[in-house]
C-alpha cells in the first residue's frame, strides 16, 4: 500500500443524511453519473440517480465490512444458490438505511414524486419461485443478524420470463431486466476467475505416487458482479456475488490468429450463453448441458474466489472447517463437492482422505423437494464429456462410500444399488441428492413434515447409515420486505401497539394476541385490510385494467403453476359455486361475494400447467361477464406474478389458498407471508402448513383433505378418481360443465385433456380431496359472515406466526448446522 496523501488514508465518509445533503448528492449524481440536468432528465435518469445516492450512502460501510470479514477470519457462511429472487431493491435499501423519509422529502423538493421512481425499477427476477425467494430472504437475515457470510450465484442476463396472456394462454417474453442498466451492481472484470470445461484427464507420476490431472478443452471467464446486502438498521452491508460468463481473451486470440473472425465471435457467444438465461423450470429440472455448465461455472468460480480472497496464502486447509461452511441450496450447486475435492487434491496436493475429511465438514445440503421428478440426476455421458475429472472423483467417492456400506450391512446388493450415487437405470447417471447427502456434514429439510418424510422415505437408507446427519430447518420469510415494506399500514399499527422491535424480533408479535380482544384495535386492523384492498384495486386497474369488485372476500392463490399445488382444485370450487348459481340450486344472493385472484407462471414446456392457465382465464372470462353472478363472483388472473406483485396482493388477501396434496409441498413460504399479513389459511396438512396450523390453532385455520398417511393408504388401496366423480353429483356437475365446452365457446376438445387427466390419472388426487375442500370452503363462508370474528382470527394469525421470520430460520441454521455466531 503506497498511500501517502492523507485523504487516501482517511475512511470514506458517508454522504450527509439530511434532506439538503441528499438533494445535493442526488443532483450531483444526475449531473456526473447520468450526464443530465434535472430538467433534461428522464424518469430512468432520476431513478438511477436516486439509486446511486442511496448506494453511495451504503458504500463506506460495505467496504469496511468486507475489510473486517477478511481481517477477522471468523467462521462464515458461503451460501451457494443458482437462484436469488430478489425483488426490487430501492425501497429495501431505503428502509435498511433509514433514508425513506429523507429521500421522499428530497425528491419532493426537486418536484419529483418518489413513487414514480419506484415504478421505474425492474425487479431482478433471478429465480423461479420459492427456492430463489428463500435465498433472498436468507441473505437479508444474514446481514441483519451480522453473520459473516457471502451469497454466491449467477448473474443471468435474462431472469424468469415475463408472462403475458394471448387469448387466455401463456406467452413468454424475455425478461431483459438489464436493458436500462442496474444501479445496484459493481462489476469487477479484473477479479475474473478462469473456469475450465471439457478435455480429458491423464495419470502422472508424482514422486512414486500416481496422481490424476485434468487437461481441460476450453474455458470461460467468470466475472464477479457484487451487490450490496444491507442489514436492517444495523449498519451492516454484506455481499451477494453473482457471476457473469465472458469469453476468455486467450480463447478468442487463438481463433483470431487463425483468421476466422466469425468463429471468434461464435466462441464469444458460446461462452456468454452460460449466464444468458435462467432455466424457467421449477421443480422439474431438465438434464440440459447448458444447465450443468451454469452450475459448474458458478460454484467453481465461487470456491476459487473464496479460497483466493478470503484466506491467507499459506493457509492450513485442515483448519477450513473452522473457517467456512458452504451451504448447498438444493442440488443445483452440488457439483461444488467434486470441484472442492479436485482443488484440494489436484491443485493443493492434499491426500485424498485428508481432503475428503475436510470436505465432509465444509459442506451442508438443503433438500427442497419430495417429488421424485425434481431430484436432479446428470448422465455419466454428459458429465464425462463436460467435467471428466469430476466424474472420476465422483466414482472414487462412490466406491469408498459403497465400501463403507458393505462393511456395515454386508453384501446386500439391493441396498448397495439403492444407495449408490451412480444409478444404472434408465441410463447410467449421477444422483446429485445422494452425492450431497454423502458429502454433507448435515442434510436438512425445510419444514418438520418434509424433514421427517426425507428421513422416512426419500433418503431413508442414508438416515440409517448416518445417524444424526439429518435435521430440520423450517423456512421463513423476511419481515422487512414482507411486512414492513409490503404492508406499511399494518407495520405502523403493530408498531403503535408493540413498539418498533418486532421487525428484528418477530416473536414479539405474540403481544398482539391481547389486542385481538380489543374492539377498537380490531376496527383499526379491519381498516388496514380495507385500505390495502383499495391499494390493490388501484394497482390492478393501472397494471391490468381490472376493476376489483367492492366488498368482496379476496380469495387468493398465488404461486407457481404446478399440478401438485392443485390450482385445479381451486378452480373446481369456483366452477362448483358458479354452476350452483346458474343452475338455480343456490340463489346468488345467498352466496358470499368473493373475488378470486390467481397468480402463476407455468414452465414453458409444461403442457398441462399451461392448459390449466388457459382454463383459469377461460372460466374468468365467462364468470366475469355473466350477469347472473354479477356482484357475487369475480375471477382475476393478473399475469406475471413476481415479488413486486406479491407485495401488493398478499397484504390485501382475506383467504390464503395452500392446498397442495399432502406430502408434496416441501414447505411453502407463500403460506407464511399470508398468515403474517393477516389472511386466514385454507390448507392441507402439508409442508409448513402443519406448523402454521399448530401455532395458529384449529379455530383460526381451515384444515381439509387427506393427511400424508391417508394419501399413501389410498394409493395402496388403488385410487380410482372416476369413482369420486360418479358418486358426487356436485363434482360431476362441475366437471361436466368444463367438459361441455361452456368455457371454450362450445368446443369440447379444448379442455378435454384436463378432464380426462382428472378422471383417469389425477396423480395429485384432486378429486379425492374435492368434497373435503368444498366443505371447508363452506366453513370459510360461515366464518366470513361475522366480520368482527374474522378480523379477530386474522389478528391472531399475525400474532402467532412470528416463528416464520427468516431470522429464526438463520438462527436454526447457526445452531444446528453452521455454528457461525454473529460477529458484531
Ligand atoms: C413467496 C413467493 C413464492 C413461493 O410461493 P409458494 O406459495 O410457497 O409456492 C413464489 N413466487 C414469488 C414471487 C414469491 O414471492
The assigned CATH architecture of the largest domain is 3-Layer(aba) Sandwich
CATH top level label of the largest domain: Alpha Beta
The molecules bound to the chains, other than polymers, are: pyridoxal-5'-phosphate
Query: What is the percentage of strand-forming residues?
Result: 5-15%
Largest sheet: 10 strands, mixed
End-to-end C-alpha gap: 27 Å
Shape: globular
| CATH topology-level name of the largest domain | Rossmann fold
Structure at a glance:
The protein has 824 residues and is an alpha/beta fold. The longest helix is centred in the first third of the chain and has 30 residues, at 43-72.
Task: Describe this structure as you would to a colleague.
This protein is of the alpha/beta class and 824 residues long. The protein folds into 3 domains: 10-72 and 88-122, no CATH class; 311-472, Rossmann fold, CATH 3.40.50; 479-811, Glycogen Phosphorylase B (Rossmann fold). Helices cover 49% and strands 15% of the residues. The strands form 6 sheets. Strands 1, 4, 7, 8, 11, 12, 13, 14, 18 and 19 form a 10-stranded mixed beta sheet that branches. A 6-stranded parallel beta sheet has the order 22-21-20-23-24-25, with helices on both faces. The radius of gyration is 28 Å and the shape is globular. The mean pLDDT is 95. Bound molecules: pyridoxal-5'-phosphate. The site of pyridoxal-5'-phosphate has 13 residues, from helix 7, helix 25 and helix 26.
